[in-house]
Amino acid sequence: MDTLNESLDPNDLQDRVKPTVHFDEYSPKMGTDDSVIVASFSVMGQQAAFDLENFLEKGYPWILDAETSAGEIKSNHWLVFVEAERRTSFPENFIELIKDLENLTGIKLESWNMLYYLGGRKDPTYSLTKNNIAAHVPLSPKKYRDIRNSNAMLESMLNIARVPRRQGDIHGLTKAKTRPSQ
Asked: How sure is the predictor about 11, in pLDDT bands with cuts at 50, 70 and 90?
């Protein structure tokens, strides 16, 4: 395969990038799960994936690493992984990246969706906004550990109680809310 050493032009990745980004579905190479956020993009075509990887890795100092998957996830579709530190600045940085991608993909910010991977088959998707990233992606190592530990504890309690289960069923449960005193 010949690699071209030229920059990307506007719309070079048009119709190549799926407008849904997944967060924390994969483990990072550059650190631990609790300290590094992994975002993944689905890209049609291996060369397009390499082009996106190169663009991301060279264009943003807050990105620790960008890499294309070793193999296809489905016929002619590749993943591009982006690793960044879990920090409160991540949502703003990531939205700026998505705005910059509009020039290459033709996809407007309003058309993007996000999925925070909780391990279930039906993890919900949300519009990709700074507020949704902040609300659904843990932005500190402690918050990440707290979420994972509470899920493990709930999982364990349901198994001990022998509650009939399906894979990923705890992700629809919500924290109990205290009622206001009357």
From this structure: confident
